[in-house]
Each structure stands twice: as C-alpha cells, then as structure tokens.
Specification:
The complex is a heterodimer.
Chain A (H helix, E strand, L loop, with lengths): L5 E5 L4 H12 L5 E4 L8 H6 L8 E4 L2 E4 L1 H11 L10 H27 L4 H20 L12 H6 L6 H8 L3 H4 L1 H11 L2 H4 L5 H15 L3
Parallel strand pairs in A: 1-2
Antiparallel strand pairs in A: 1-3, 3-4
Helix pairs in contact in A: 1-3, 4-5, 4-7
Chain B lengths: L3 E5 L4 H12 L5 E4 L7 H6 L8 E4 L2 E4 L1 H11 L10 H27 L2 H22 L12 H5 L1 H14 L10 H12 L1 H4 L5 H12 L7
Helix pairs in contact in B: 1-3, 4-5, 7-10
Classes of the chains: A alpha+beta, B alpha+beta.
Chain lengths: ~220, ~220
Amino acid sequence: MSNEDLLLLDFWVSPFCMRVKIALAEKGLSYESKEEDLFGGKSELLLKSNPIYQKVPVLLHNGKPLNESAIIVGYIDEKWPSPPLLPACAYGRSQARFWADYIDKKLFDAACTVWRSPGEAVEVAKKDFIEVLKVLEEALGENNFFGGETFGFVDIVAIPMAFWFYASEKFGNFTVEEECPKLSAWIKRSMQRESVAKVLPDPEKVYDFVIMFRKMQGIE
Amino acid sequence: MAEVKLLGAWGSPFSRRVEMALKLKGVEYEYIEEDLADKSPLLLKCNPIHKKVPVLLHNGKTIAESLVILEYIDETWKTNPIFPEDPYDKAMARFWAKFLDDTCMPAIWKIMWSKENQREKAIEEAIQHLKTLENELKDKKFFGGETIGLVDIVANFIGFWLGAVQEASGMELVNKENFPVLCRWIDEYVNCSVVKQNLPPRDELIAFLQPRFSASSWKY
C-alpha cells in the first residue's frame, strides 16, 4: 500500500468514477474520496479542477488535477506500472485503446438510450444496444477478459457500464444473458474480482436512480 | 511490399495527422488514397467497425482511429517523440487532444450545419472553446513547447482547415484581433516544415468545401 496524496472527486453511481476506483484498487493504492453533489451544487474544488467540463471523476495527485476517466486510468497505469493494465507490445496496446474508445463512443449512450426512449422508440434503442453488445462480445472472443488471460484496461473501462445494464434490461424487456451469453459470463467473472466487487453499487439502486432521473427529465 | 501502409483521404485532417507523425519520425510508408464515396474492400476489411480513414497497416496488422494510431506510432518509432515523457504531461496532452476532437471541432462543424436562428448560439459556443484552447497555449511557441507535439498535430484542423472553411463559407471565426495568440501559433505552425509537407492544397480544399456553403440555407 502506498501513501501517495490521492483525492478522487466521486459520484456513487457514475460508471466513469468506478473506472478510476477499480484501477486504483488494482494497483493497491489508497486514496481519499469526496462525494460530489452533482444535482445540489458542485464543489469549488471540482469547478476549479475541471473548469472545462465540470464533471467527475477528477483525480488529484499531489494537488494536480486529472480529468477524463480513461485518461486517468492510463495515468494510473503509467505512474504505478505494476501490475500492468495494458499489454506490453505496442500493437496490443493499440487494440486496447481502440476498444476503450469504441466503448466510450458507443456503449453508455446505447444503454441509456433504451431507458431514455419514450414509448415505441424503445424497440429501436434496444436493437442498437444489443448490436453494440454483440460487437463487444465478438471482440472478447474466447478470452476470459478483454485483456486476454488477465483483467486489464478495456475490462476496467467496460465493466462499470454493466451496472447500468439492469435498467436497460427492465425497460427494454430483455436480458443481456440471453442475447450475449459470453459477454454476460465476462460480466459475472469481472464482478468477482475484489477491485470491482468492492466498488460496484447495487443494480437495484442504479435502477432507482434511473427512475428518478427519468422523472427529472420528464420522460414518460 | 511496403511494411507500413496508410489508408487515407487527401482532405481529411485525421488522415493528414498520421502522415505528419510518420514523416516527423522518418518512417517510410505507402499511401493509399481512399474514395470515401466508394469505400474500397480493403478499407472495409481493415476497419469494419467504423469504416473510416485513416487506417495504418504495419506488418499486416491494422490500427484504426487517428489518436490510437498516433500513440502506436510514438511507441513503435522512437525518433522525435510526439508525446511528453512525464506521465502527468502525457495525460494533459491526451486531455487536450480529446478536447480538440470531442469538443472544439464538433462545435465548429455545428455552426456549419446549424439553422439560421441557432447559428449565433453555435458561434458563441465555438468561440468559447477556441478561447479555452488559446489560453492553454499562453506564451508557448507550440502546444508541445519549443517543437510540435501531439496536441499541435491533432490541432491541424485549427491550424489549417479552419482557414479554408472560413474562406469557403465567408464566415470569420478567428482573426488576429480576437485571437492574437492562436493566430500567432497558426502562422508558426503552417510554416513548420513537417506541417507544410502534410497539408492538402489550399485551393483544392476550398473548392471542395465551397459546395457545402452554396446552398441557400447558408447565409452569412
């Protein structure tokens, strides 16, 4: 355990914050955490540390702020190289970055669109979401993790999204297990890791959050 | 058979970024021009997910997404590094690259596609982001310091394409009065030899862009 000055500006349900927490846990790093009230009023520290986007997560290392979850995870991996989250070879790393980028561009939005869509639009949103899941399932192949034999960068980027799938499943009336059994197995396998298990929120609580959020946005 | 091949498009800033990086490092490569209106079987095979350029082929392996390719190039060919060495500085470079691609550029394009009654707001937003970018530059010669680095390469759209877009559309977003620091950087940038060699012919680019602005819906 190291005694680095690490402070995470956090929000309990944010999958992006979860990525950082999992990465820190994988490296055995202890840190302080400050829960932000994103709806009530963002803290001065958050607004000062991330003036452009004003979003969490923010990781402050010795007072210096880092923003954007995938970039933060990359920093953690480079600053504390053991155990490595990325493959050793440049090509393997490029593939990991490509999939992390794909997940960032497609996965969360596709999952949320299912529960954000009113009425009949849900069916289209569900189809799009399942398509994204199938692409990822194909990328996973027969491996235990996206990192191959070991849990790594892409797994960390993807697994927090899985806690939001329950909400999509309920609104879309389907299960990820039925549509993508290999991906579902990967989710279960990843959730058994200590670094993931100790930060994951209760999917029911995430679902309640989604209900509240939908009400706030006036979605029927 | 060339060891390194690049599938690109002459007018694409994303494609030209990769060429800039390869030339900076003295890497020999075969360039293959793609007709984006009629994508080749090779492109569709090499980038089935996004079907876009640029795609780098190295020893038969393919890498897509310009930022991912730039990381790969820097890790594979060590001459003239593009990324800073210090992990924090590297994270900041990645942050600004992402800001350019995810926030700055889309804001500029949004102006072009916006309806007349939304244009004012779109322009305000783009100017705000350009100001943020200018503030990051401060009194540095380049974003990378004394020599061009990742952020300068990724900012090629601002450095060159923006000028062509302004001329094609008749709209002036950036000039020496409102953006003195950014304009100073643009001058340094386009006169930099590795940049100069990797820009599309200005007249051709303007001619290519002009039809987008000749529709009656665009009035400026």
